[in-house]
Amino acid sequence: MAEKKMWHETLHDQFGQYFAIDNVLYHEKTDHQDLIIFENAAFGRVMALDGVVQTTERDEFIYHEMMTHVPLLAHGNAKHVLIIGGGDGAMLREVSRHKTIESITMVEIDAGVVSFCRQYLPNHNAGSYDDPRFTLVIDDGVNFVNQTTRTFDVHHL
């Protein structure tokens, strides 16, 4: 029986996460980072950037729902939302559920993340990239914030 390939998160020297890799769906060194998307029996599809897990299919809703809905509901009347990062599309999916939002702008530094997640993590975005209120800007988030004249009611970082 062949031994399964293991993937180890590299964020910390003293502890980490290990995942059995059932199947590598995509692996590329983009202009900005090393991106891997693989399948794991327990967590479904897993995406890591530069050796650090960013999201998994099984548990992403836990943090995306909280990070999105709490600020929007606390604001009470948000119309224009800025997402910095979030190229996997899950936060966009959650913002898109709020029908009173008029515009959603996502600034993602790496176009590859959006492209690959759209293909390999379709449940994360659930079609929200096609929302007519959505605009994608490929840029560094700090640069965008320093240069834009637009204002936003809620910022998600």
TrEMBL record:
One of its GO terms (biological process) is spermidine biosynthetic process. Gene3D superfamilies: Spermidine synthase, tetramerisation domain, Vaccinia Virus protein VP39. Keywords: Cytoplasm, Polyamine biosynthesis, Spermidine biosynthesis, Transferase. It comes from the Bacteria. GO terms for cellular component: cytosol. Belongs to the spermidine/spermine synthase family. This is Spermidine synthase. The lineage of its organism: Bacteria, Pseudomonadati, Pseudomonadota, Gammaproteobacteria, Enterobacterales.
